[in-house]
Amino acid sequence: MKKHGFGLIGCGAIAKLHARAILDIENAELVAVYDYNYEFGKKFAEEHGCKAYKTLEEFLADTNIEIVNICTPSGLHYEQIISAANAKKNVIVEKPIVITHEQMDKAIKAVEENKIKIEVISQLRFTYSIKTLKAAIDEGKLGKIYIADYRMKWYRSPEYYAQAGWRGTWAMDGGGALMNQGIHGVDMMQYLMGGVKSVTADCRTLKHNIEVEDTANILVEYNNGAIGVIQATTVAKPGYNRKLEIHAEKGTVILSDDTIEVWDVDDMEKPELGVSMAKSGSSAMSFSEYHHRLQFLDLIDAIENDRRPLIDIYEGKKPVDIILATYESNKTKTKVNL
Ligand SMILES: NC(=O)c1ccc[n+]([C@@H]2O[C@H](COP(=O)([O-])OP(=O)(O)OC[C@H]3O[C@@H](n4cnc5c(N)ncnc54)[C@H](O)[C@@H]3O)[C@@H](O)[C@H]2O)c1
Known about the structure:
By secondary structure, the protein is an alpha/beta fold. It folds into two domains: 4-123 and 291-312, Rossmann fold (3-Layer(aba) Sandwich); 124-282 and 318-337, Dihydrodipicolinate Reductase, domain 2 (2-Layer Sandwich), CATH 3.30.360.10. 36% of the residues lie in helices and 24% in strands. It has ten helices and 14 strands. The longest helix has 20 residues, at 313-332. 48% of the residues are buried. It binds nicotinamide-adenine-dinucleotide. The site of nicotinamide-adenine-dinucleotide (NAD) has 23 residues, from α1. Nicotinamide-adenine-dinucleotide is lined by residues 9-14, 34-37, 40, 71-74, 76, 94-95, 121, 123, 164, 180, 284.
């Protein structure tokens, strides 16, 4: 059996989950890691039975690495996508794919020119509840959707921001509660509703000592005619389940984290409950690698069958565009059309 060789850049919090997901895939192996702090990389490599490289150039020259997982601070993703693409490696990149329009354009150019495959992590799209809801919407089982709301009332401690200096900065995090944590919800909502038409935002820094917002409220108009509110905060101590609420012609669906809490839809049985694997209300890393693994398998399948990965660069761009429009709306105090 051909084994797909993976290499990880950045050996911090999310990298451990990536490594577990790779080790769980029969036809995959973790070949090597690179962290600009070599001691981090070396320790990580010892723990996971792989090589650690001292430079990015040596790492990218390893011909056993076919797929590069980018697990570094968000502001570094674009230059590492470009380096990996130029070395003809396929890429898995953590969310947000990049944090500015300029970075996006450069990353797209490198991916297109080198014809590599790239999968952008947005693991909640792969959950049972979102797959079930997406299918019901697309098959017209909910009828016309009137209201679609998403609330992420999470808590992140001062230590969370202090632990890694890049968090909560414009240059490396690209934003706060929205660009870092809320992006999952923004992506799910735009995916379910067929895209966003406009945003009107109010972003504030209510509690944390950070440059960026810790709370964002957005009034959203969706492409399918629905309206709603997206709310993301990291000040709601001790942190609560994400809530996704849809009110449509044929009834109401409410998700609490990954679980289907309410399915009051005409002529439809409530689908079996989803098992919640993505509890992140009060801690950044308290979720399973299960859905990351599904995304890694999707990229492997896309490589083997020469097809587009489910969340490719153009899909990964969508939530970033919406969030950048939100920041523009907050700055100009106007409604911004996408
Ligand atoms: N999908 C999710 O649910 C999820 C959850 C957490 C984090 N993330 C994303 O993962 C990324 C990393 O977050 P984290 O919390 O693991 O960060 P972290 O600070 O814990 O780890 C980042 C690692 O990158 C290394 N690094 C920094 N600069 C580097 C460089 N130039 N070259 C190589 N290595 C470098 C650091 O030494 C560190 O080990 C972010 O983009 C974040 O948004 C996603």
